[in-house]
Structures are given as C-alpha cells and as structure tokens.
Amino acid sequence: MKVKKLKILLKKIFKKYGLKDNHATISSNALINAELVGAYGHGISRLKMYCDRLSKKVINPEPKIKIKKISNSISYIDANNSIGFVSADIGIKTAIKNAKKTGIGLVAIKNSGHYGLSGYYAEQAVKKNLVVMIYTNAPPAVAPHGALKSLFGTNPICFGTPTGSKIPFILDTSISLINRGKIRVAARYNKKIPKGVALDKFGNPTTNAKKALKGVQLPIAGYRGSGLAWMVDILSGVLTGGNHAGKVKDPFEDFTGPQNIGHLFFTFKTNLFQKNYNQRIKENIRTIKKLPKSKGVKEILYPGQNKFKRFKENSKKEIKVPKIIKKDLKLLLK
Predict the structure, then answer these.
(1) pTM of full prediction above 0.90
(2) pLDDT per residue over 199-223, tens digit each?
(3) Buried b or exposed e, range 31-45, using 16+ CB within 10 angstroms
C-alpha cells in the first residue's frame, strides 16, 4: 500500500476511535515511521491495540494536557492519559524549545502511554542540532537480576547527536536481548524467536513466542542489563510520577485502567563546552570507521546509519500490509 494512502487510512481509523484531527495525524505519522525504518513490531501491527484501549476508555481521546513551567529549562507535563504519541510529541517539542532558549531542556511526563519508538523523537531534537537522551519504562517483561519474577519493562535507552552529516547518530535500544514488539509479531504469525532470548513461565529456555510472552525476557549483559532497566525505571517512573516497579499495565492484555507511563526527555546544545563540536564529532566517527575491520565487515557503522538507509529505501516503496493486518484494518473501519 502506498505510504500516503496508508497514512490517510490510519488517520481515519484513529479519528473514528475519538482522536482529534491533529492527534490522529501525530499518531498515524509515528506508526508509518516505524514501518519505514523497519521496526514492524512498533508499526501498524499495534494499531488494533491502540484502538482497543481507546474504545475501552483507558486512553483518553480528548485529554487536557497540562504543561507546568518549573524554569526556563525545565517543564513537567501531565498527559491526562492521552495516547502516548501525542504526549511524547509535546514533550520533545517542549524540550527542544527549552534547550534552544537556555542551552538545556529537561521535560518529565506522567500519565502517558506507549509512544512507539524513542528514536523517532530523538531525531526531531538532532535535526535542531541538539544532543538528546530519552527514557521511558514499560510493562513487566524482564526479571531483576536474582529474581524469579519479571518486573522491569524492556525499558529502552535512547541517545542521539548530530554528526555533521545528514545521517544522525541515534542509539535506540531496549535492555532486553530482543525487542518485545518482535516477540509479539512472531507470536501473531506463529513464528519462532531466536534461542537464548527468553524463558517460559517455568524458567526453561524457549523459542516459542507465545510462551516467551507469558515468561521472562533475558536482559543484555546479565546483571548489567538488569541494572540499566532499573535505572530507566527510576528515571522515567519514580522521578516523573509515572507508574514504576512493575505497575505499568500491559497495553495488549490489561484494560483495567490507564498505563500511566512516564517519559523523560533531556536535550542540550552541542556547543555548551566546545564551540567546534561538529568538527570533533566528525573526527570521532572518522577515527572509529578507519579501524581494522573484522572478517566479512565492509564498513564500521555507527548507530542510526542502517535505520537511515532503511527509511530512505522504504520511502520509495509501498508498505507491505500482511493479511492479518488487513483484517484488522477492515474490522477497525466497520
């Protein structure tokens, strides 16, 4: 399906489920972006989930979002249980605005929901020549190191910086060995997941996606990954006033209330300490790319290069809509 046609269709569906025109546009753009960068677990496969939550009134379609100015650099947002795309869009734009004024922008958000890809918002800041760090927590999926029960989310860590070229440096990674969205997609299509990334509910290694969703995902680097997940839970949950310590509700299965996810956006100018940042970051990347390469490696890539390439290539093509998603679209349009 052509990008423009799919975007119009998504917007129509979001509006049918109560979102205002501009909020429907923001949400549709975020889902389309996920498809174009190849993050299918965060794309249109999640559309039905958002609509289900809207219909069950655990996402507020007409939120009264409040922005509290703490200082010229710091803002605090109560998203009033809006769809996460909208609160995150306001959050990153506020952080950018604050950083442009004072050099630093810090924005905390509470009472939000799942907002898709952190890198999507990081790119907005990088395009304004800002360095950015973003944190958000998620429903229980990973057990804290030493525990037998999942509690932390896959809690992504995101960092972005201008590079002096058109391709930004965007590191957007979950603390789990595999993104939970990928497991959900695999479960829906009855496909297996890689070995060594998850355990079933009995603590046994599994390649069955459905069993993995009921079990535990494994963190990157053992206790270190668990520690990073805890850090994100503190920064995006404890600090912001959002849910934390395993209280974020699963958006696909728990409709007992809003998720109350917390987000933290931190942006700052590149020239706070060094006036020649662009020159220095170019030198940094050039030095690393010149290192001797492992066998079979053609180029040492920095985070964001592959994603940029996929976006550019996919933008020229139609978006593939699997049969099962087409059924969702027809059902949601009825």
Answers:
(1) yes
(2) 999 989 999 999 999 999 999 999 9
(3) bbbbbbbebbbbbbb
